[in-house]
Specification:
Elements lengths: L2 E2 L8 H13 L12 E6 L5 H12 L3 E6 H4 L3 E2 L12 E2 H11 L2 E5 L7 H5 L2 H9 L4 E3 L7 H14 L6 E6 L9 H12 L3 E5 L8 H4 L3 E3 L2 H5 L4 E5 L21 H4 L6 E3 L12 H4 L6 H21 L2
Helix pairs in contact: 1-7, 1-13, 2-13, 4-6, 7-8, 7-13
Bound molecules: phosphoric acid mono(formamide)ester (CP).
EC number: 2.1.3.11
Family: Belongs to the aspartate/ornithine carbamoyltransferase superfamily. SOTCase family.
Enzyme class: transferase
Length: about 325
């Protein structure tokens, strides 16, 4: 595997999630596979789960890990092609990543969108350029438009918890005070379209996701209608795709609360975290026995470990 930037980078994401669940049963079974191999984790943006789960996964495979926060630790990196580099950005990714590839056998990168230029963000240029400019495998730790490791962990969690062959999974928008990327929602929808689930997406008008990611999902603008008989409720805020990067609503009636969860089939509550409590979801829901958020975060480790294992086996 040369890259893991979308669910389509593996032949079958369902089989891959099953592999990850198998690895979870015996995570140290391949603890020498990564001996004398180095993973470089490059963060343009903050992280808690992605950073720690990826470090832990690499260590379980016997790898060494180097972590760099670009904005804090290194030269500020230029990502635009052909610019006159007379600003505060001292090095181009065209130079930096081939150099990082000299020290690392696999590179992980997190780079969020600008939320200003939809065309540029949806070209997913930074991660694609890094794949282009480096000779070593690249793992997306969340790009401008996708968060594939999160979606893989989400699929694992649904497989673990589902009591039905084809559960109803509802992705619901919820309010947030800041403009957030669409990456988590895009990857979740992309992956659920490939999974054996009934996918429903609910949000206020104006928050339609890119149709490429919506795929065959049913879009319902009435949140309560969408929640009826759901087996999984996946809450996430995202900024508008059509009115790109804008906050169009802060409607508190979209907060996931106990009353709305009561409409479901005793659904599990999911969120990728970090979450703003009592903004996205009430304490009562996220602290309830049906909350799967900690299990989801735990599965991040085995999702990325499965990707790294596959990459190490093919170096
Ligand atoms: N869910 C997730 O990616 O968390 P972090 O931003 O903390 O890595």
């Amino acid at each position: 595997m040369k890259k893991y930037t979308t669910a389509y980078d593996v032949p079958n994401i369902n089989d891959f999630a099953d592999k990850a669940l198998e690895l979870k049963k015996n995570p140290f079974a391949f603890d020498t596979l990564g001996k004398h191999k180095t993973l470089g984790l490059i963060f343009f943006n903050p992280s808690l789960r992605t950073r720690l789960s990826t470090q832990k996964a690499a260590m379980s495979l016997g790898m060494n890990v180097i972590v760099m926060n670009v904005d804090g630790d290194g030269w500020k990196l230029e990502t635009e092609e052909g610019v006159i580099m007379d600003s505060d950005k001292a090095e181009h990714i065209k130079d930096a990543f081939p150099v990082i590839g000299q020290y690392c056998d696999i590179i992980g990168v997190r780079s969020f969108p600008s939320l200003k230029d939809r065309e540029a963000d949806y070209a997913d240029k930074v991660i694609n350029d890094i794949v282009k400019y480096t000779s070593v495998p690249v793992v997306s730790l969340e790009s401008a438009i996708r968060h594939p490791l999160q979606a893989l962990a989400d699929l694992m969690t649904i497989k673990e918890l589902s009591q039905k062959a084809k559960p109803k999974v509802v992705l619901t928008w919820a309010p947030h005070p800041r403009a957030l990327p669409q990456a988590v929602s895009n990857s979740f929808a992309e992956t659920m379209n490939l999974a054996d689930v009934e996918l429903v997406i609910t949000h206020p008008k104006g928050y339609e996701l890119n149709p490429e990611f919506v795929g065959n999902a049913r879009v319902v603008y009435d949140q309560k209608e969408a929640f009826k008989d759901a087996d999984f409720i996946y809450a996430k805020n995202w900024s508008s795709y059509n009115d790109y990067g804008q906050i169009l609503s802060q409607d508190k009636s979209w907060v996931v609360d106990e009353e709305k969860m009561a409409l479901t089939n005793n659904a599990h509550f999911m969120h990728c975290l970090p979450v703003r409590r009592n903004v996205i979801v009430t304490d009562g829901v996220i602290d309830s026995p049906q909350s799967a958020v900690i299990q989801q975060a735990g599965n991040r480790e085995f999702a990325v470990q499965t990707v790294l294992k596959e990459m190490l086996e093919n170096l």
